[in-house]
């Protein structure tokens, strides 16, 4: 059934909400005013009740009324039939997403905390053309303080989707909504697989609180994409959250290895400060977007504003940053602009006498093919020492 267009959906097309299915939720599911507003059909006496076109994993579209009363908005007539047709039970969880054009998609998680498979099993690595919300394995966890130091992956998720090879992995990569990668240690014992080292810093960075819901989508090879839902059930917007970032920065500044690194480099500190003030190697200190040019720790990244020299010759990196990620000798680094893409660029790196590091061979090709210009900012997120994800922010 074709869905109507919605030229005014705009940002509303990203409205999402997480809900727990209680006994009362099977006939009337309370939803946020923001989500309900996506379906408003009109005002005044005689105006029809707005209708959500709930898209079924089986390919059918269900018409569900969006109603309002003195307590707020909810999904009404048609919702119970949708749940019954899909065998959804009490205590399960749903994530509702407005797709535009009056369409509402539903992800269903059962009591194992894993996404419910309808029909064909979820695929770990689907084709690019696959748009189904059930393409990739996913699981949720409702956060509480017991999960702050380590969190166990659901047993069914591990059994069904984690290969034997990955069971021996020591590191998981978590892709944050703010375009940063986090390396989190894995512990595998008789009780299960846990996120451990670096997990608490990841939570602090994103400001996760008790009762909030974590959703992790599995990309394969122990790589995950992460989302979170607040106490209201609405998806959290991390791009506007600076508190968690500041907290994480403070913690990393207090870590002993970094203080030790500074003391070891004390002799060359004046030379490094002079180098960092030059336009060849570092952005201007007055630029508010680059007040902190690099970060060391669980989430390692370095941010560089591209100037003429960097665009046409070499890209220079700070010694302290390179030493911390063990980039100390000539090697080849793989750059990727998308975690899901197979396309990558290989660039050559070379250490200098004073401890700095330059990126040369292959760098100019990367800039050309990605249309990098003078004034653009490149953020290099270190997945591994020789594998970096690059986020390019264009100059306004």
TrEMBL record:
Task: Point to the regions of Low complexity compositional bias.
Answer: 278-288
Any one annotated GO CC term: nucleus
The signal peptide, as residue positions, is none
Q: Where found in the cell?
A: Nucleus
Stretch list, region Disordered? 245-292
Pfam families assigned to the protein according to its UniProt record, in alphabetical order: B3
Q: Where is the TF-B3 domain?
A: 59-112, 136-232, 332-396
Q: What is this protein called?
A: TF-B3 domain-containing protein
């Amino acid at each position: 059934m074709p869905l109507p267009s919605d030229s005014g959906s705009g940002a509303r097309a990203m409205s999402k909400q997480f809900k727990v299915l209680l006994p009362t939720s099977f006939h009337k599911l309370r939803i946020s005013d923001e989500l309900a507003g996506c379906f408003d059909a009109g005002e005044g006496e005689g105006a029809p009740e707005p209708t959500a076109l709930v898209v079924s994993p089986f390919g059918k579209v269900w018409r569900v009324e969006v109603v309002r009363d003195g307590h707020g908005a909810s999904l009404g007539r048609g919702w119970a039939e949708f749940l019954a047709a899909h065998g959804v039970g009490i205590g399960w969880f749903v994530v509702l997403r407005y797709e535009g054009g009056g369409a509402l998609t539903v992800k269903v998680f059962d009591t194992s905390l894993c996404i419910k498979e309808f029909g064909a099993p979820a695929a770990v690595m689907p084709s690019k053309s696959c748009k189904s919300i059930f393409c990739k394995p996913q699981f949720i966890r409702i956060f509480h303080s017991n999960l702050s130091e380590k969190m166990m992956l659901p047993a069914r998720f591990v059994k069904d989707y984690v290969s034997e090879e990955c069971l021996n992995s020591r590191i998981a990569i978590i892709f944050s909504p703010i375009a940063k990668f986090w390396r989190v240690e894995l512990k595998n014992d008789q009780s299960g697989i846990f996120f451990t080292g670096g997990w608490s810093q990841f939570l602090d960075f994103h400001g996760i609180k008790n009762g909030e819901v974590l959703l992790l989508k599995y990309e394969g090879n122990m790589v995950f994409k992460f989302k979170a839902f607040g106490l209201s059930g609405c998806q959290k917007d991390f791009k506007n959250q600076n508190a968690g970032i500041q907290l994480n920065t403070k913690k990393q500044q207090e870590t002993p290895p970094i203080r030790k690194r500074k003391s070891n480099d004390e002799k060359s500190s004046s030379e490094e400060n002079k180098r960092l003030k030059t336009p060849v190697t570092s952005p201007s200190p007055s630029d508010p977007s680059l007040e902190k040019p690099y970060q060391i720790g669980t989430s390692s990244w370095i941010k560089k504003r591209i100037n003429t020299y960097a665009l046409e010759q070499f890209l220079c990196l700070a010694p302290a940053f390179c030493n911390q990620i063990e980039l100390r000798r000539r090697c080849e680094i793989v750059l990727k602009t998308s975690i899901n893409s197979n396309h990558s660029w290989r660039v050559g790196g070379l250490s200098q006498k004073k401890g700095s590091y330059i990126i040369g061979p292959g760098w100019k090709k990367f800039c050309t093919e990605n249309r990098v210009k003078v004034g653009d900012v490149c953020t290099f997120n270190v997945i591994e020492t020789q594998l970096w994800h690059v986020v390019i922010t264009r100059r306004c």
